[in-house]
Every structure is written in C-alpha cells, then in structure tokens.
Amino acid sequence: MRITFATTFSEWVKLFKKVKPKVLALPTPNTIDSYMTENGVDLANDETDVDAADAANTLADEKEKSAEKHTKAGNLLMKQPMKDHRKCCQNLKTIYRTNVHKLGDWGITVDNESKIVYKTNADDHAVEIKALITKHGTFPAGTSPLQQLLDEEEIDLAQNEIDVDAAIVEFDKADVDNGKKEEKIVERDNKINPVIEHLRGIGQAAVKMYVSNPKKAGDLGFTIDSSKQPPVLKLVTLKPGEEKTYDRLDVGSFITIQGEGEIGIRPANKPDAPLVHINSLQKYLIMYGYGKSVIKNLNSTQKTTFAAEFHQ
User: How far apart are CA 196 and CA 7, in angstroms?
Assistant: First the structure.
C-alpha cells in the first residue's frame, strides 16, 4: 500500500484542505498526532503558509498573463519595423557588396562570411532597428542610399521608430512582470514546501496506522495505490570478500554477474546452508525461499557487481 501524492501546486493545496480537518478530528492519541508532535507540525501554522502560498501563486499567474499581454503587444508593434528593417539591410548589403564592413555604420552585424546576423532578443533587435533609422537620418533629405527603396516600398521609417519605441516600453513592462512572477514563485515554493513535507509525513503515518485497512487512509484525503508494483532492476557492488543480506529479491527473476567475478548466495533464514556459487558465465534463478538472501563476494581482492530485481 502506498500513497500517490500530488504533482502540482494546486493539487497540494487541495490535499491539505482535505487532510487538515480530518486529521484534527481523529481521536488521540494516534500515530499521526504522535508524528506531528515529535516533528513540531502545527496544522494551523501550515494553513497560514498554504494561504500565503496560494496568494503568491495567484499573483504569479496574474503577472505571467500580464507579461504575455505586453510581449504580444510589443511583438505586434515590431512586426512591420522588422519586415522593413530586413529589406533595408539587404538593400544596403547590395550597395556595399565589396565593402561590407560599412554595414556596421548602420548598426548591422555581419559574420565572417558576409552574412547579416539579426539579434534574436527582442530588445536587442529593437536597438539595431533604431540604429539603422538613426544612420538614415544623418543624410540630407533624399540623399540616403536607402531613399529609392523607401519610396519604392512605401517604407515609413519615422513611423517605424515610433512603433519600435512603443514596443520597447511594452517589452520593459513584460520584463518587470516576469521578474515579479519569478519572485512570487519563489515565495510560493518557500511557503508550500515545508507543508508538502508535513503532508508526506502525515501520509506515511496514516499508512502505518491503517496498514490492514488502506481505505481509512484514503478517507483522510490521500489517494491510496494498493496495486502490486513491478520489481526494479538494480546493480549492486560488493567489496572484496563482503557479505550482505538482501531483502525483497524477486522470485522467478535472475541474478547475473556484471563483468568478472563470483558471488555466493544462500537463504537468509538458513545460516548453515552452503553458498551456491554464481559466476559471470551463468544466470542464477531466484527460487522460492531466496526472496531474502545472504550474498557474498567470493573474490578477496576485487569488487564484484551483480544485477538483480528487487520489489519496491
């Protein structure tokens, strides 16, 4: 019998709200009450922390949505300036084909193969768009190398600059909101994490208290899983000559030596039984009675590693 615990913040909050009143209603003394007393768990204090965590989480969600709104608005403002910027850059690259370093005067970055590299960060890209517009403005009216393109494509760099400035404002607001969101997430986690540990402890205490009646642990609000779990394959390393007892070996599975070495095995409840030797050339079937076994590394100078399946 085991508990399937929550995986999301909201599920942990719901679990606490279910468990708290039912645990407090239990007659004392009981295993859960003893656990809480021993570990200084105060459910009233935990409820205060849960409420604070919930409030922080709500604000984090609000700031996330606000940041998304500002980012979307900024991206929309940047759409036309970005399109026009690329046209301008490609036009200038054709003009300065034999002297590409001049593109740097326009705020354009070129790699070693004369390829234009645009900034991927929205704020940085806004800066390079404005740099090109500023450079264009240094030419007397109608004399910029870009003038023919601007006229032909009906590009309005003045409007683009206005839109880029507005986009920068939106991106800055998004950054502030994202920063606040992260701050509130940290606050939320700091409040809820100790409560999560308390809920895990209460759950384990409930499992031990109702070991023969899992439904009672479920009645406290926990989700109980009574299904048999598949065995887990583990690698075990023994020191030279080391002997250890292993429990919960899966009957019907095999023990195999990894690499070189040799081990001996016998049932743990039969101390006088001879060790059955297992080497790297064979697989040993775990038979009934060997679920709990003593296993010894028969090599006195080297470590030996074996693989076996264990029940959880």
Answer: 11
Q: What is the mean pLDDT of each run of 10 residues along the chain (312 residues)?
A: 86 96 93 94 97 97 97 96 96 92 93 87 92 96 96 96 96 96 96 96 91 85 80 94 94 92 94 92 90 94 94 81
Type of residue numbered 278: I
- Measured CA to CA, the distance from residue 84 to residue 136 in angstroms comes to 13
How many Cβ atoms sit within 10 Å of the Cβ of residue 154?
A: 7
Measured in degrees and rounded to the nearest 5, phi and psi for residue 41 equal: -85, 120
Specify whether the CB–CB gap between 114 and 98 falls below 8 A.
no
Residue 237 falls in which region: left (phi positive, over 0), alpha (psi -120 to 50) or beta: beta
| Two structure tokens written together for 50 | 């849960």
Tokens at 261, concatenated: 């070495």
Q: Which residues contact 209 (CB under 8 A, 6 or more apart)?
A: 30, 31, 32, 216, 217
Q: Is 167 helix (H, G, I), strand (E, B) or coil?
A: helix
Instruction: List, in order, residues 6 or more apart from 301 with CB less than 8 Å away.
Output: 240
- Rounded CA gap, 113 and 275, in Å? 71
In angstroms, the CA 108 to CA 135 distance is 11
CATH numbers and ranges of domains, the chain: 1-227 (no CATH), 232-310 (2.60.120.10)
Angle, in degrees to the nearest 10, between helices 9-24 and 157-209: 30
DSSP 44-108: HHHHHHHHHHHHHHHHHHHHHHHHHHHHHHHHHHHHHHHHHHHHHHHHHHHHTTT-GGGGGGGT-
Residues recorded for the chain? 312
Is the whole model's pTM more than 0.85, yes or no? Answer: no
Q: Which amino acid is at 61?
A: D
